[in-house]
Every structure is written in structure tokens, then in C-alpha cells.
Design brief:
It holds the Pfam family DUF3857. The protein has eleven helices and 34 strands. It is α+β, with helices and mostly antiparallel strands. Helix 5 runs antiparallel to helix 7. The longest helix has 16 residues. The chain is globular.
């Protein structure tokens, strides 16, 4: 996601820079014999698609920072559904922040033994506005089949040059050639951030440090593994930002509007944007739509909760990847809509009016950005904003972006270690403390009815992030049987008496209850699965080995208590025995207990995952315990009817 500041001054260059590369180029639409004859990638033989060539060439012109992109793929298998639908996102905003021009695309395919090449027309190249200044170029390639070559190129013009778009040499498909070059004017100095040993090895940097180039060959695709946070943490990649200029006095870097030497300077510049300042200095009397909340009789905590509920529920969220407000406070309250930054700025403003200390915090996204922040004032590493408030000497992290997330809880993708505190004259990176207890408690009673058999009476209580996940599922849906009937864990039985008690906003919990019937075709033998609604019934880790760390959404626990009434005339034939398991790191613990009485059989299980991340070296331990848990929870209880001779 690209972001800096609309107000940055752009220099008008008197001399145009030559964007041509010093090394050889491929010609658009011209294919070598090697490309045409390629049927398998030598270093990744199972690949269904290969990147024959990909390149980005960035340089300065009088109209902004230009980047020429060129991509060429070959299809090696017929099983590549939807591959030919390419989306190129960009942010035009209110002032042509970014633009995409000169889009060309061609498909080359085999028909009746002959290779045919066709340029895509306007019918297959469309520009689509998705709202809030965001646009997409959509390429729809026809004739996507084995042997086809898909190629496209375009120019991106960026009127903000402080942050480079960056380039990833690794992606979903293996690449034969991946190139990136960047040429800056002599009076600008950029800091390039290289990720990956092989990227650093192929770097070519001019003595003046104004021409950078990288060329990687035979780049493997990123591993297709489950439970990976964001591939940006592991891919070979280059980013960059402007850190100095001949036009800036090195003794007065803190006064520069062009270069950012410290986090404090970057924070002050962000806070000085016109739209942001409106959330600081606005006069409520001048805003007809200003909310009239009755707060004086409330405690500070209840005041904060009331303000939070107002912003969450009364301002419609317009999703945006932009790290700036879309409206001033006047426009926001008039339109009653805004992006996440808009809404949290309003929350900050209203809290401060009640004497509650509050600041905006920019954070990275665990599943869209880097896990570890770069220790330089590089704003492009952040993806969203939250609010840090101090109420009665206690710190709270708040996010009023949507109407579902409750006060004091952040969505799982925002559970990051540090954030960029946007405090005037005191901007800084700071540790963030998250307080939550996510998990579920299930109580299941299996009661026998002579006419209908076993009836499951299920009560499930979800806490914190488990409740938030279910709350988002219910958003816009009617809370009835249709919700649970879509749950893939329900493989048999009819759902009855379904009800939901939604206390997400007040107690950060949701309670669910429903009944389901066990259908048994064998009158003398009953097989019962007491743990059919466990999250751990299926082991997701089936690969023999792993290259990347395992990333969970959040630490959690699951407690299940099940009671089975033994029907008259039946005896327990078989049932799972007590088990306790853990792994050397103690990051996963599992206990399973069974108690056989005269008239009932009781079970309890607890599965606890106490961390977010498992290293690749811990994978075998994780795989073993998750498979063992799955086997235990899937173990049936068998009841046999006593037949008198």
C-alpha cells in the first residue's frame, strides 16, 4: 500500500532523466525459442504457471515518479482457473496521487497446432472505480490454457516520491527473470531496504548512489503452506525512501518538509495535514451535525464507551488503504461516512474534548505488512490506524472502524507488538500492550429419548476474538439455523431451537445454544461423537516438512464438557481414555479426561495454544500434537444394547 502526504512539494526538474536501462531488454510480443518451447520449470517441475519475465523500472520525470512495469507469464497446465484475471490497484484520490497509463496486453496461444497472438482490446481492459479515490485496472485474458503466454505492461505515475512502491522478486509463481531498477536525480539520496541475502548479492549501486539495479534469475515461488501470516516477511524484496537532498540543510533536517530524519518529524508532518488539523482545532459550534452526547453524569470510562459506540455505529465505514483521512471533521459529520483513519480521528477528538488523553497510532497489519517494524521513519510499513487512550490511569487500545469490534478489543490482524504514536512534538515508536482472553467453553448434554434417540443439547460461549469472529459472521445475517447449517463441522443431525445471546459490545462474549439429533440406523449399536463442534477435529498440518513459520490469528483456548446419558438397556462398549499431551516449548497443551458412572459418561477436553507463532523448526512437534488431538477428539463412544438370551 502506497502512502505519504498529499502536501509534499514536488520539484520541477529542468533536465529530464533518461529512463533507459543499461542492460538488454525483451521486446513486447516477441518470444524466444526457449520461451516458446518451455514446458517445465527445471528448478520447480510441478509449477503450473511460470513468470518468464517481470520488471519494474522507476525514474523521475517532470510529472512525477514514473515506473514502467512489464510482466510475461506462461501457462504450463490446463488447471489454472481464473489465472487470466489480472487486477492492478492504484489510488487516484482527489488530486491524481497515482495514475496508470499506457496499458497494453497480449495473449499468445496455440490453436489447431498454430501459435496465434492477439492484443487485448477495450473489452478486456477496463478501469473500475471502487470508491474513495481507489481504482483498479482489470485485465481479462482470453484463451488461457496450456501453452498460452500472457503479457502486459503499463506505466504508473506517482506524484509522491518520498516512498518508493518497492519490488518483490518472489511471488506465487517461479520466475525465470525478475528485475528492478531505480534512478534518482543526483540531488536526492534514497535509502534502499533490501530483504534477503540473494537480493543483496545481486545489487548494483552506482558510486553516487543514485542508480540502483537488481536482477534475480531462477527465483522459486513462495511455499504453498497453511497458516502463514504475510509472505512479505519472507519474500526477497526491495523498498526505499527519500532520506536526504541537496535542497535540505543537513543541520536543519528537523525543519524539512521533504525529508524525514526522525519519527517525531514524521508525526508532526502527518498531524499538520489540513484534514488532520481539522480534528484538532474544529469549533463544535461551527458544525451543525456535531453530536450532542449526554456525558456529564457518566464516569470517564463510560464517557469513552459512549463516544466509542457513537463513532462505531453512526459513521459508515468506507474501506480504504490510504493512511490519511478522506474528509475533514466537517465533511465527515456531514456525510456520516469515512475511512478507518477518519473514524478514529473523530474518536480521538471527542475523547480529548472530555479531558481524556488520546492519540492516533499507526500500525502494521499482521497479515498485510511486515511483522517487525523497520527502525527508520518509513511510513509505508503501516497499513491502518487505531487510538491509544488513557482512562483512569489505564491504557486502552481502541478501534472504532466498524460497528462490530467492541470497546477495548482489536481485530486479530491488528494485534501487533509496536505502533507509531502520532503525538505532537513527541512522535515515536512504542510497545503496545494487548489484553484479551480468546477462546470458547462448550457444554454438551446428550440426552436419550426412546422414540427419537440421542439429542445433543449444545451451549457454546465465545470470548473476545472468537466472539468477534462469530459477530462478524452474524453481521448482516439473521441469527437462525441457516448460519450453523453452513458450518462444515455439522455433518449430520437436524438443528433445532437455535438462539444467540449477543453480548459482544458489553461483555465481549457471544453465547450460542441449539439442539441437534443423532440419527442411528443400527438399533443395537449407537456410535456417538461428543466433540463434533471442536475447532481441532481436523489437523491442518499434513505436509511432511515446512519452510516458513506457522502463524496463528491469536492465542486461544477451547474447553469442552460433554455428558452422555447411558440409555436403559445399553452398556458402554468403548470410549476414549484419559490423555495429557504437550510439546517441548509448552506452547500447545492438551488434556482429555473421561469418567464412567453408572448412568452417564462424562468427558472434558482442553486445548490451549498460548502463542501466535511457531518456528519452522517446531513444525514437527506441532504437527504431531495436532494430529494426536484430532485422533482423540474424533474417537467415538460406542454404546451396545444388552440382549438377554
Amino acid at each position: 500500500m502506497k502512502s505519504c502526504f498529499r502536501g509534499i512539494l514536488f520539484l520541477v526538474f529542468s533536465i529530464l532523466l533518461n529512463p533507459k536501462l543499461s542492460y538488454s531488454q525483451i521486446e513486447f510480443g516477441q518470444y524466444s525459442e526457449e520461451e516458446l518451447s518451455l514446458t517445465q520449470v527445471p528448478f520447480e517441475p510441478d509449477a503450473q504457471i511460470v513468470t518468464l519475465w517481470e520488471e519494474a523500472n522507476s525514474y523521475f520525470m517532470v510529472t512525477g515518479l514514473h515506473t514502467n512495469y512489464h510482466f510475461r507469464y506462461k501457462v504450463l497446465d490446463d488447471r489454472v482457473e481464473n489465472f487470466g484475471n489480472i487486477i492492478i490497484p492504484f489510488y487516484r484520490g482527489k488530486s491524481l496521487v497515482e495514475d496508470i497509463v499506457k496499458v497494453e496486453a497480449q495473449v499468445s496461444y496455440i490453436e489447431n497446432g498454430q501459435r496465434i497472438s492477439k492484443m487485448l482490446t477495450k473489452e478486456n481492459i477496463k478501469e473500475v472505480s471502487i470508491g474513495n479515490g481507489q481504482f483498479e485496472i482489470r485485465l481479462i485474458f482470453p484463451h488461457v490454457k496450456k501453452g498460452s503466454i500472457l503479457e502486459y505492461r503499463y506505466k504508473k505515475i506517482d506524484h509522491q516520491y518520498g516512498i518508493l512502491e518497492g519490488w518483490s522478486f518472489q511471488g506465487t509463481y517461479p520466475a525465470l527473470v525478475s528485475k528492478f531498477t531505480f534512478k534518482a536525480p543526483d540531488f536526492f539520496q534514497y535509502q534502499m531496504i533490501q530483504q534477503g541475502k540473494k537480493v543483496a548479492e545481486v545489487a548494483s549501486i552506482s558510486p553516487k548512489k543514485n542508480l540502483f539495479s537488481w536482477e534475480r534469475r531462477d527465483v522459486p515461488s513462495l511455499p504453498n503452506e497453511p497458516y502463514v501470516g504475510n509472505f512479505i516477511n519472507y519474500e526477497e524484496r526491495v523498498d526505499g525512501y527519500l532520506y536526504s537532498s541537496e535542497y535540505v540543510n543537513p543541520e536543519k533536517l528537523e525543519e524539512s518538509e521533504m525529508v524525514y530524519a526522525t519519527w517525531n518529524q514524521l508525526a508532526n508532518r502527518w498531524l499538520e495535514m489540513d484534514e488532520v488539523e481539522s480534528y484538532v482545532y474544529a469549533d463544535p459550534e461551527a458544525i451543525p451535525e456535531f453530536p450532542k452526547l449526554k456525558l456529564d453524569s457518566l464516569s470517564k470510562l463510560d464517557q469513552a464507551k459512549t463516544i466509542f459506540e457513537y463513532v462505531s455505529n453512526n459513521i459508515e465505514l468506507k474501506r480504504s488503504n490510504w493512511l490519511e483521512p478522506y474528509y475533514s471533521i466537517y465533511g465527515l459529520l456531514q456525510k456520516k461516512e469515512g475511512n478507518s483513519i477518519d473514524k478514529n480521528l473523530l474518536l480521538t477528538y471527542l475523547l480529548r474534548r472530555q479531558g481524556i488523553a488520546a492519540d492516533m497510532v499507526l500500525i502494521n497489519d499482521r497479515f498485510r505488512g511486515r511483522s517487525q517494524l523497520i527502525e527508520v521513519p518509513f511510513i509505508n510499513q503501516f497499513q491502518s490506524g487505531i487510538v491509544k487512550a488513557k482512562i483512569d490511569d489505564k491504557d486502552y487500545l481502541l478501534d472504532a472502524s466498524d460497528s462490530v469490534t467492541p470497546f477495548g478489543l482489536l481485530a486479530h490482524n491488528k494485534l501487533v507488538e509496536r505502533g507509531f504514536i502520532l503525538e505532537k512534538d513527541h512522535g515515536r515508536l512504542e510497545e503496545l500492550q494487548h489484553q484479551f482472553r480468546s477462546g470458547s467453553i462448550q457444554n454438551i448434554n446428550l440426552e436419550w429419548n426412546d422414540s427419537s434417540g440421542f439429542v445433543y443439547k449444545n451451549q457454546i460461549k465465545l470470548f473476545d476474538h472468537e466472539a468477534l469472529k462469530f459477530g462478524k459472521l452474524l453481521e448482516g445475517l439473521k441469527a437462525d439455523e441457516k448460519v450453523w447449517k453452513k458450518d462444515t463441522r455439522i455433518e449430520y443431525g437436524e438443528i433445532e431451537n437455535f438462539s444467540v445471546v449477543d453480548e459482544l459490545s458489553s461483555k465481549r462474549s457471544i453465547s450460542i445454544s441449539f439442539n441437534s439429533k443423532l440419527i442411528s440406523e443400527e438399533p443395537n449399536l449407537i456410535v456417538v461423537m461428543p466433540f463434533q463442534f471442536s475447532e481441532y477435529l481436523k489437523n491442518p498440518f499434513t505436509q511432511e516438512s515446512r519452510l516458513l513459520p506457522v502463524e496463528y490469528e491469536f492465542p486461544s483456548f477451547e474447553n469442552i464438557n460433554a455428558t452422555i446419558t447411558i440409555p436403559e438397556g445399553f452398556v458402554v462398549d468403548d470410549y476414549p481414555e484419559t490423555m495429557t499431551l504437550t510439546i517441548p516449548s509448552k506452547k500447545v497443551k492438551f488434556t482429555y479426561q473421561s469418567f464412567l458412572g453408572e448412568k452417564e459418561l462424562k468427558f472434558s477436553s482442553r486445548t490451549e495454544v498460548s502463542t501466535y507463532t511457531f518456528s519452522a523448526s517446531e513444525y514437527q512437534d506441532l504437527k504431531f500434537i495436532m494430529e494426536s488431538i484430532s485422533v482423540q477428539l474424533n474417537s467415538p463412544v460406542t454404546l451396545r444394547k444388552v440382549i438377554n438370551p
